[in-house]
Amino acid sequence: MDALCWAANKRKIEGKRRREEGNLAALARSARTSVRSALRRSPFLLMPLVKAVVEASEIAHGARPLNELIHRAGFWALVFLGLTLAVTPFRQILRYGGLIDVRRMLGVGTFCYIATHLALFFADQSYDFAKFVHEITHRVYLIVGAVAWIGLAVLAATSTDGMVRRLGALRWRRLH
Questions:
Q1: Domain range enclosing 24
Q2: Which segments of 32-98 does DSSP mark as H helices, in order?
Q3: N or C: which end of the chain has fewer CB within 10 A?
Q4: Cβ contacts of 149 within 8 Å, gap of 6 or more
Q5: Which residues contact 52 (CB under 8 A, 6 or more apart)?
Q6: pTM for this one?
Q7: How many domains would you assign to the chain?
Q8: Residue closest to 47 by CA, chosen among 79, 21, 90
């Protein structure tokens, strides 16, 4: 009798796993949007860049313009990271599955702002890699940021439809 229950439970679990993988594959298919659709949603992510261009004169005439750009990129990266993390609870509260498409776009956009923040910091260190590494390894908040950047780099690199297929739906979902 125990063997029959075990076999039935195993079939039930395998069926559930297959359905989850199928649902994630369907999700990946639905997430493929046309370039036109992506361009319609991307102005939201480009607004901080537009704001910086509008305020370029003010930034350029400041005491440390590069430092100002570093802070702006970091600030907007944190704003977009917060929005990205808020998508899942909002999706569950509002019971609107379409927000999942927005989450991937926001996550990749967040990574772009963080990568820009890091590149500007590298430029602020006069493109001296030794000085760059020394600064990061000797300040706790920079170590935390570097570890977070590595984690986000992995998530951004695996956010493509091709990576969903290569990793398999279940492993991709665990990672993300």
A1: 2-175
A2: 35-41, 43-54, 56-60, 65-94
A3: N
A4: 114, 115, 118
A5: 59, 69, 72
A6: 0.70
A7: 1
A8: 79
The values of phi and psi at residue 47, to 5°, are -60, -40
Joined tokens for residue 94: 């509002």
How is residue 96 written in tokens?
Answer: 């609107």
Residues 6+ apart with CB under 8 A from 170: 17, 20, 21, 24
Q: Which two tokens stand for residue 63?
A: 């005491």
pLDDT in tens, the chain (176 residues): 555 555 555 565 665 555 555 555 554 454 444 444 544 666 778 888 888 888 888 888 888 888 889 999 999 999 999 998 998 888 888 887 777 778 888 888 899 999 999 999 999 998 999 999 999 999 999 999 999 999 999 988 888 888 888 888 788 778 77
Task: Count CA atoms closer than 13 A to 11's CA, side-chain side.
Answer: 5
